[in-house]
Amino acid sequence: MLRMALPNKGMLAEGAVELVREAGYWCRRLDGKLVLRDVENEVEFVFLRPRDIALYVGSGVLDLGITGRDFVVDSEARVVELLELDFGHSAFYYAVPSDSGLTVGDFVGRRIATSFANVVRRDLQRRKVEAQVVRLDGAVEISVALGVADAVADVVQTGRTLEQAGLVKVGEPVMESEAVLVGRDASVIGKPSIERVLKRLRGIVLARQYVMVEYDVAHELVDAACRITPGIGAPTVMPLSKQGWVAIKAMVVRRQTNSIMDQLQEMGATGIVVTDIRTCRI
Predict the structure, then answer these.
(1) CB–CB of 155/88 below 8 Å?
(2) Rg (CA), the chain
(3) Ordered domains of the chain (ranges, CATH)
(4) Residues 6+ apart with CB under 8 A from 234
(5) pLDDT confidence of 267, banded at 50, 70, 90?
(6) Pairing, β 151-156 against β 111-114
(7) pTM of the full predicted structure?
(8) Helices and strands (DSSP H and E) totals, the chain
């Protein structure tokens, strides 16, 4: 039975469970259980701290895991990233007191507090900046006010927590993160049980990026319409019982939906309908 780790809490946990359930796996966590078995699909789900998942997968205890790329990098586990999952997006920044005027170049000899010590050490080494990395398990933002650090490095989503602590971001993101599927090493690629999971998850990730648009248009406008909705490969074009008219169906990028509908309506298309795609294989 294939063994797969999922985050046990937070937004990563919610997104991971939703993803595997949409992919057809039985994954209903009741009473805080740490292990669930989908007997029909021969997968065992193990719920772990997001920070620990890459370590378990890298050691060979588990076959696959879903966690954040930032946790993977910080763990320095020997795993391979198999698939970007397009949720749990965040960015990792340095932050300094808002009135300090400090830049990353001023960190030489200073203390940098973070929960991602290896990420920070690697970045400082790349920049050739010698600073003291202070590892904390949480509440990194308050470390400056308490005199533990001169600056911090942390995952930033809205930036409100930094602002409340009197801190501001400096420089470009150290790294950008999202949820990823990891395997123990490259040897897992091609294994039937692994490929089945990959195909299912990839189908959901792709389906979330696209919608299906259907509409009717006069035959003489087909070429122009197909340029607006080229689809994946080519759109489906079918004749209607209405003389000189056709129905067109195509996948389009979700974020472009409203703009595409505007263009179609302006060119004379009618009956424009957009529907969600639950999963797909391309």
Answers:
(1) no
(2) 24
(3) 2-86+178-189 (3.40.190.10), 90-175 (3.40.190.10), 210-276 (3.30.70.120)
(4) 226
(5) very high
(6) parallel
(7) 0.88
(8) 8, 15
